[in-house]
# Entry
Amino acid sequence: MKKMSNVSKLYLAVVFVILYAPILYLMFYSFNSGGNMHDWEGFTLDWYKELFQDTRLLVIVLNTVVIALLSAVISTIIGVLGALAIHYVRKNHWRNTLLSFNNVLIVSPDVIIGASFLIMFTMIGIKLGFVSVLLSHIAFCVPIVVLMVLPKIQEMSSTLIDAARDLGASRWDVLSKVVLPYITPGIFAGFFMALTYSLDDFAVTFFVTGNGFTTLSVEIYSLARRGISLNINALSTLLFLFTMILVVGYYFITQRNKPAGMGARK
# Structure
């Protein structure tokens, strides 16, 4: 057993090295005073200064954050309502059908989703830009929120709702004071997952962006095609750190929302 444990630890260490070594390599050379990723010449913050002096790139960052926040908030609201609707469908056949439809956008290739949205927006006359990107991000974030929230609803005992009704609570009181507080960890998980998916998405966004509007993922792709520049390293480093802050923030939120007795259990 001890030998198996050591092998497992070694395997995990190798996996983490493979995953994080390229990121650390990229971050390391974002401080290189040279113009390449081969020869280290000295420490500098010039690439970060140049990054923050690029007005166009700052506008793109703002576009990306606004799209991510709006899509995360809207998809969380829709996803919570969708999860509640799926849970309270009485017939298993219809519930499984709705879950299957919900999972279509998750299992479908991003290229197919992006091309489908592009065709749809062109047909109905929606101009490619902010609105098209926002709608497409909401569409692929909603199923993620549903999958995050639905297990928490299924964990909730029906006796809680029955007790609230016996005490004279209205449907709104049951929803706002019993159901929503109970599933809050799932709601936060869905929100942060939607936020990170929106920030990270490239394939779908690439299809539905128009002239004059773009996001960071598409911009980084465009910059990389022009050649290696340490501006890309600096920008990617900041994005990685921002994502880590989100992950740490989500961890502390979930720990705070745990019942007091959970931490004492063995």
Summary: The CA atoms of residues 161 and 167 lie 10 Å apart. Residues 260-266 have pLDDT under 50 and may be disordered. The chain is about 80% helix and 0% strand.
